[in-house]
Amino acid sequence: MLNKIIDIVKQAGEIYKTANDDLGIEDKGSAVNLVTKYDKMIQDFLFSELEKVVPGCSFLGEEGDGNKKLTDGYCFIIDPIDGTTNFIKGFQHSAISVGLAKNKEMIIGVVLDPDLNNLFYAEKGKGAFLNGKLIHCSDCNLEQSLVLFGTCPYEHELAHKTFELTEKIFYKAIEVRRGGSAALDICYVASGKADLYYEMILRPWDWAGASVILSEAGGYAATFEKEELDADKITSLVCGNQKVLEKFYGILES
Ligand code: IPD
Ligand code: CA
Ligand code: CA
């Protein structure tokens, strides 16, 4: 099943690469929350092709009015373009993210960065890979960490708290970065390209696929309240190795 899903995600990456100047940009009720015709095209493509791999499965996808609830049985959780603002601007840091849950447990994750041709994938119990090579989360301390964070761009009321927390963390780590794709942020932590990532609000499609890759790479993810992630809810998320997470929670509570 994993190989078939990878193949479909790669084909979706080819659709992403056909993007020209006419992106068909619309806003989703706020001037900063945008969608393009490519987000919709890629989601439609993934829905129709993945249905053939797992007949009768259900879907939880960001775009459109489709089902927004996780179901029992097989359920794909899809972000057709994670990092739509980067995509629109040509910043070249976005992802196509597909997670597969079975009876509400994440079992497969495939995240493609079509600009760099980086393919992250994992199946529960079988390790995590980047372009065919096994990946591992780092085991460094916060002092040796490159830290990624998200700004909750659609919830401006969380900006102050986010930047306050980030200032505290900035002084304790090597450096901080704001990439603009939560799925890639988590995959970067999974592959040791970065060591900690956090954001105060995420939707399940932002993290579902990447969460399997992270846990198979030996990393941990939880909410700011130290609860398990739940793809039925909108929650905060923090991920990294255990040492870095402990330091993060200490700073959060300080
Ligand atoms: C967003 C990106 C961004 C994160 C936001 C997400 P979208 O997803 O992952 O990095 O900060 O919270 O909503 O809207 O580009 O799919
Ligand atoms: Ca997203
Ligand atoms: Ca998206």
Structure explained in plain terms:
The chain contains seven helices and 14 strands. It is 34% helix and 28% strand. It has two domains: 2-134, 2-Layer Sandwich (Fructose-1,6-Bisphosphatase, Chain A, domain 1); 142-252, 3-Layer(aba) Sandwich (D-Maltodextrin-Binding Protein, domain 2), CATH 3.40.190. It is α+β, with helices and mostly antiparallel strands. Helix 5 (182-190) packs parallel to helix 6 (204-216). The model has no long low-confidence stretch (mean pLDDT 96). The chain has helices at residues 2-17, 37-53, 84-89, 159-172, 182-190, 204-216, 242-253; strands at residues 26-30, 33-35, 58-61, 74-82, 95-102, 105-113, 118-123, 128-130, 133-134, 146-149, 175-177, 196-202, 220-222, 235-240.
Secondary-structure blueprint of this entry?
Elements: H1 2-17, E1 26-30, E2 33-35, H2 37-53, E3 58-61, E4 74-82, H3 84-89, E5 95-102, E6 105-113, E7 118-123, E8 128-130, E9 133-134, E10 146-149, H4 159-172, E11 175-177, H5 182-190, E12 196-202, H6 204-216, E13 220-222, E14 235-240, H7 242-253
Parallel strand pairs: 3-4, 10-11, 10-12
Antiparallel strand pairs: 1-2, 4-5, 5-6, 6-7, 7-8, 8-9, 12-14, 13-14
Bound molecules: D-MYO-inositol-1-phosphate (IPD) and calcium ion (2 copies).
